[in-house]
């Protein structure tokens, strides 16, 4: 994975959904890539790394954006200094999740 050069300016990192509600919605960090931002948040926020690592058990995965562009896994280490880095939870599509949501809407669960 390519290593980004050191960054000396602060960049906006935004967390959405349950991540933002649990750990805070906006951060300014001296990072140049999404992977560097996630590593920094793992260090700065107690429980953040564990929360990410156990999210799949709760039916969640994450989408990472640079500006409005959804990043692929291989792009996380690339330089994204011009845009805010946004991390948003996404429900993992499965029959159980859809059944649960349907029951919630119907008021059964």
Automatic annotation (TrEMBL):
Keywords in alphabetical order: Membrane, Transmembrane, Transmembrane helix
Claim: Transmembrane helix is one of the keywords in the record: yes
Keyword Transmembrane: yes
Superkingdom of origin: Bacteria
Transmembrane annotation, as ranges: 87-108
Protein name: Putative phage tail assembly protein
